[in-house]
Each structure stands twice: as C-alpha cells, then as structure tokens.
UniProtKB/TrEMBL annotation:
Keyword Repeat: yes
InterPro entries from the UniProt entry: Leu-rich_rpt, LRR_dom_sf
Name of the encoding gene: Lrcc6
Identification of the protein by name: TILB protein
Lineage per the UniProt record: Eukaryota, Metazoa, Chordata, Craniata, Vertebrata
Gene3D superfamilies from the UniProt entry: Ribonuclease Inhibitor
Length: 223
C-alpha cells in the first residue's frame, strides 16, 4: 500500500502549497528535479502526475522568487545524486543564479565541467570528490580565497596559472594524479606566488627554491 505522502515524493519544496520558505534560508537543500513524465510512465508511477499541472508564467515567477538563489551567501549542494541529464541541467541552472554566494560546497556530485558558470563573489569553494580533469573545467571564481579539489582526476597543473590574479590563499589537491608530478609543490607555488597553504601545509623555504638547488635541502616534511 502506498503512503499518503507517496504522491509528493518527487515535488520540490517550491511546489508545495502555502509554504513560504525561501532558498536562501536553506543551507543544505535537495535541488534535483523529479523524473520526467516518460520516466514515471516506465516506472509505473504515473499516478504521481495527478499532482502536476500546467504552470502559468505567474506561477513560474513566484517560484523563482521563492527559490531566491540570488540572495544565497552560504550554500551546501553536496551529494545531490545527479543521475540524469535533466538533473544536471537543473543543477547548473541554480549555479548560474548564485551571484552573491560566498561559501559553496559541491562535494561528490560527479561534476565534470562547470566552465560556463561564474560565481563572482565566491571566496570558499569545496568541490571534492568530483570528476574534474583540468583546472579549465572549474567555474569562474575571481574572488576565491580557499579552494578544495581533493579526490578529483586532475592530471596536470595546466591552467592553474589562471588563479594567479585571484586572492587565492589556500589550495587542496590531495589525491589527484597531479600530486605525483615531479617538483609538484615548487610548480604550484611558482604559478601561484601569493598562495600560502598547499594541501594543508604552509609554504616552506624549499617550495620557493629554483630546481638546480633543490637537492641541497635536507628537510624532511612529515605529512
């Protein structure tokens, strides 16, 4: 037997009647959309369509105002389980509206390319456990100060110099293939002279030394 709430399980909070909660009041919302009508038919769950109706332009505008993503300053959109293309498209639609977000978490969303997204005020971005392979696939983040990209698939440091003109202070690249590149720390700091911390370790004297004198140092760093 189906529960009384069964017909609501694919609805977002904006679709519930007489609910005044706005997007900027939610720190960890689930933002993925429900399955398409065709998918529901194949799942034999077409009964959920009874709650759906033709949405007017006025209702679309009211929903946009209720989502209120433009006024979010801190938002956690991790673990969204974006299993279908329309889920990813809706996710990116929301990211494009985050014009005032300063702290954003996008952990474990199987993301591959956000280069078309711009986050003009973002100071802290956590995109751990995704599928980025290059710095070129990251969103435009001109005000970034703390960036975490642990456990992605970034193979080279190509494109990292794009962050040279940002106020980036802390960068985490742990468990990416590029971490095993020869002179990894020296290369990162040479491309980002204003960087203070890499992978949780402050900038060390040998991180600034030229390649021809690096072997003169006998400092052991315990991670």
């Amino acid at each position: 037997f189906k529960l009384p709430s069964d017909s609501f399980k694919y609805l977002g909070w904006c679709d519930l009647e007489e609910l005044g909660v706005r997007g900027n009041q939610l720190h960890c919302p689930r933002v993925r959309e429900g399955p398409s009508e065709e998918e529901l038919f194949f799942r034999k769950e077409e009964h959920t369509l009874k709650k759906r109706k033709q949405v007017t332009d006025t209702e679309k505008w009211e929903k946009r105002l209720q989502e209120n993503w433009e006024n979010c300053a801190e938002l956690n959109l991790s673990f969204q389980d974006l299993g279908d293309l329309y889920q990813v498209e809706n996710f990116q639609r929301i990211l494009r509206r985050l014009i005032r977000v300063e702290k954003l978490w996008l952990v474990d969303n199987s993301l591959t390319d956000l280069s078309a997204i711009r986050l003009p005020r973002c100071r802290e971005l956590n995109a751990n456990k995704n599928h980025f392979t290059s710095f070129k696939q990251l969103p435009k983040i001109p005000q970034i100060q703390h960036l975490s990209l642990a456990e992605n698939n970034i193979t080279t440091l190509s494109g990292i110099s794009d962050f040279r003109h940002t106020p980036l202070e802390s960068l985490i690249l742990k468990r990416n293939p590029c971490e095993f590149q020869e002179r990894y720390r020296q290369l990162v700091f040479s491309n980002l002279p204003n960087l203070k911390i890499l992978d949780g370790i402050p900038k060390l004297p040998e991180d600034c030394s030229p390649p021809d004198v690096r072997f003169f140092y006998r400092i052991c760093t315990i991670l």
